[in-house]
Write a structure and sequence with these properties.
With 60 residues, the chain is an alpha+beta fold. The chain has one domain. Helices cover 38% and strands 30% of the residues. Strand 2 and strand 3 form a beta hairpin. The chain is elongated, with a radius of gyration of 12 Å.
Length: 60
């Protein structure tokens, strides 16, 4: 599994590819100005994309 990402000044874009050829679900979120908040958001988004059922269950 591959995590693809682009961290820009306005938005962060993350996606997962299971085979390195096809891109699955894409998540676009605003880039926080605070570095720590940005890294937490990045981690949460990556976990959500890689384990959507587990993430959804944990958020209930």
């Amino acid at each position: 599994m591959y995590l693809l990402f682009d961290i820009g000044g306005t938005n962060m874009r993350l996606a997962i590819s299971k085979d390195g050829k096809n891109i699955g679900k894409i998540k676009i979120v605003p880039t926080p100005q605070d570095f720590i908040k940005g890294m937490k958001l990045f981690e949460e988004s990556a976990r959500e994309l890689s384990c959507p059922l587990l993430f959804g269950w944990l958020m209930l």
